[in-house]
Amino acid sequence: MVAQRGWTHIATFEDRSISAADARKRRPGFEDLLAAIGRGEVDMVVAWAFDRLSRNRRDEVRLIEVCGAAKVNLAFVKGPDMDLASAVGRGVGEVLAALARMEIEQKGERHRAALAQRARKGLPWGPIPAFGYGPDRVTVVEAEAALLREAYAAVLAGASCRGLAAQWNAAGVTSRTGKPWSGAAIKRVLINPRYMGVRATSIGTGTRRILREVGDAKWDKIVDEDVWRAVHAILTDPARTTASTRVRVHLLPGIARCGVCGAPMRSYTHAHGWAAYSCSTSRHLVRKADPVDELVSEVVIARLSRDDVRDLLVDDERPDTVRLREKAAALRVRIAKTRAAFVQDDTMTPADLREMLAGLQGRLAEVEATMASATRAPVLAELVAAADVRATWESLSLDRRRAVIATLLEVTILPGRRGPGFDPNTVAIDWT
After folding, report:
1. Residue 239: is its pLDDT beyond 80?
2. CB neighbours (10 Å) of residue 316?
3. pTM (predicted TM-score)
4. Are residues 285 and 207 part of one domain?
5. Using alpha carbons only, how large is the chain's radius of gyration in Å?
6. Which residues are paired to 45 by β-bridges?
7. Is 265 in the same domain as 396?
8. How far apart are CA 355 and CA 185, in angstroms?
9. Domain boundary at 235, 267, 284, which?
10. pLDDT of residue 243
11. Residues of the chain with pLDDT > 70: what percent?
12. Among 131, 135, 128, 136, which residue's Cα sits nearest to residue 192?
């Protein structure tokens, strides 16, 4: 087109794989084009069609204003030329832009309707199959499914997502994107309802993104619902610490308590080079970490080596998990009905909906958390069944050992006199 009209090609500006429909996304090519027009380097802009040049109101206004001020015209392969320096040209441009936006919004509505219909039918969606499933997004890949089942069991036994990511990366397990696994990526996988055979839809974006369960899926589940819900409750617990990126090397940070104020103990490297525990709120106490870790480990090994070790698996106050499952199911039904009522009730505001859902979702989170902590068996089972408790204890990851300690013990670091040597009497250990 440029050669046919006898024009001189100056430069090509393009934005590949960046949607112009979202005004929040920066388009470097578009920005460079506007800058070139503003500098007087351009006399004519040639594009395939107006809706390929600009797809949102903000960019349309900027384009028309910049071109009008610089007396730059637009020419389209599919569409008429526009003289944006004139009132008629600007009016035509705005009409074409409005029509283009309408078509884009209609396509979006049809796309969202198709996705909602697939969700209601329990069908999979997405260009990339989920980890654990084959290219058809339905057939289970058994080798990956086995890894997922092990990961769910490990989380129930006290493992962290960050630790699981390190294990998978060391074993050469690749993600669907080809990137190394991270703790956040493992968490996103494990809390996806698809693995218990439930279809879900995505609500929100970024850190606010949540998955809402829609119904049974048309693919085989990889883990049982009880397992998935217990792990989901653990990983979404607001009290769960996820911000730290340091590699943990000691047993008791966050578990042991200060004997002066009751605050959790933290670990750090002392000025003399040895690892230490100290109160997280003040320097009430400072204690070498290694002797404390060794003492607590020996106490746990000794207790788990006794003949009555299986008694530890019995919790006399354990709630009725069947009743809890029924209660959780009822709450999920109420949440779904509340959302449906909002669509049909014109008097209900979004604030009313959020307020009602907050209470129901809070109660559901409490029930699921209780279900997750209803039994000690996943945390202790491997040690209880071990022929050699010490060897099994030493083979466990640090996350697993911390989970055992948190399940069985309350550890308090007490004040003691200054001086050389470690006094075991300054560590109070109570069985829970």
Report:
1. no
2. 4
3. 0.56
4. no
5. 30
6. 74
7. yes
8. 30
9. 235
10. 45
11. 81
12. 131
